[in-house]
Design a protein that fits this description.
elongated; Ribosomal Protein S8, Chain: A, domain 1; alpha+beta; 89 residues
């Protein structure tokens, strides 16, 4: 499980930008299927964090491996992490 400061739309946009047509919708999130590995991302909006006038969208992302195993799934998830990473310190 990961918590991200993004909306479901922003998360999807980042995946599509990195993986193109390998991304598809599911009933409760997104599927990423490539090179014999399929990851499912269940997306749940959470209450926004407020810091003064700043409001940050929060998203809970639960990742499960639906196809593929071990090293290939771990490598794909690392690529997803890099694709959805935002700037900062």
């Amino acid at each position: 499980m990961r918590q991200m400061n993004a909306t479901p739309e922003e998360f999807r946009r980042a995946l599509v930008q990195a993986f193109g047509p390998a991304v598809s919708a599911s009933a409760d999130g997104l599927l990423l299927t490539t090179a014999g590995v399929q990851l499912h991302f269940a997306l749940t909006r959470e209450a926004a964090h407020r810091i003064g006038a700043l409001q940050l969208s929060m998203l809970r992302v639960e990742v499960s491996v639906r196809q593929g195993a071990g090293e290939a799934a771990t490598e794909l998830l690392a690529r997803v992490d890099r694709a959805t990473q935002r700037g900062g310190g």
